[in-house]
Design a protein that fits this description.
14 helices, mainly alpha
């Protein structure tokens, strides 16, 4: 049972890969902020149902909520929204290879920031595993986009825009992982399922409220434009909810940096989709990146 966080993280990565593809498609028709909101508002019903099912299934009552839990949950909620906004902004850029690759540095940022300022305790093997998974996903990205895609031409802000947005997204996601783990840990020693369930409902619920209020004020027409696209929005909401349940559960059990390192297998799922659906062949460099990434994941089994 102590390694159950690994398959949970893998499932979370699969859901994230599928959800991100849906968000990219939806962002063609809806604004960045509305596309960000879709994952919260359409996923919330499933999250509430999950929390009820866990409470009923385990016979445990909802843990008592204290001020630290609310503070950590709110911080995680803000950081996650900001990171998602930056990620979706990358979709609108002509060349976002370097930006999307930089978002994958969230694992290393989580490990460093978590060790310095949070409760992350990482072993030497853990650091090696984090580094290997990061190296693997970067190899895959470079192999897919080509080295020229990562060249920065000139010193203009526009040339550096994908880099800055990608790093900002990575930093936001890193902080969200760390805050949500602290929120879950602040609930005490109860069952990890009920603590993770309450945390994911609290964090997502806060996003539904404060982002919803902002959109009603700033983008009322865009907010209403979600509903004609309800099928795709529902798909994004469900995959996001399942992914969030997986991430929050895994991070309640294990270090956030370890969980997200295993979650780098999202890159492998993306390649598999390209191969099976679009009939694209793996290159030697991509296979090498997959091998390095998987080696990093396997280190967590030691």
């Amino acid at each position: 049972m102590e390694l159950i966080w690994i398959p949970i993280s893998v499932l979370g990565a699969l859901m994230q890969a599928v959800r991100t593809a849906g968000q990219k498609s939806l962002n063609v028709r809806l604004s960045t902020m509305v596309t960000t909101y879709v994952r919260s508002i359409f996923g919330m019903p499933l999250l509430l149902l999950y929390l009820w099912a866990v409470s009923a299934g385990t016979g445990q009552s909802i843990p008592e909520i204290q001020a630290p839990f609310l503070a950590y949950s709110f911080a995680a909620s803000l950081a996650q929204v900001a990171a998602t906004v930056f990620l979706i902004q990358l979709f609108t850029l002509r060349n976002f290879a370097v930006g999307t690759t930089l978002t994958k540095t969230d694992t290393m940022l989580t490990a460093i920031i978590g060790t310095l300022f949070f409760s992350e305790v990482i072993s030497l093997t853990g650091w090696l595993a984090v580094a290997l998974t990061l190296a693997g996903v970067i190899l895959i990205a470079v192999a897919r986009a080509g080295v020229k895609a990562f060249a920065i031409h000139g010193n203009r802000l526009e040339a550096w825009k994908p880099t800055l947005i990608g790093f900002a997204s990575a930093l936001g996601f890193s902080l969200s992982y760390l805050f949500l783990r602290e929120a879950s840990l602040s609930l005490g020693e109860g069952d990890f399922l009920i603590r993770a369930g309450l945390t994911v409902v609290a964090v997502t619920g806060m996003q539904v409220v404060f982002l919803g209020i902002w959109l009603l004020y700033a983008e009322r027409d865009g907010l209403m434009a979600m509903f004609p696209d309800w099928r795709l929005c529902s798909f994004i909401g469900v995959t996001s909810a399942v992914g969030s349940i997986c991430w929050f559960t895994a991070m309640t059990i294990e270090n956030a940096s370890y969980v997200k390192s295993v979650g780098q297998v999202e890159a492998v799922f993306t390649l598999l989709i390209s191969s099976l659906y679009f009939r694209e062949k793996f290159t030697t460099s991509e296979l090498g990146g997959i091998a390095v990434l998987i080696a990093g994941v396997l280190l967590f089994l030691l």
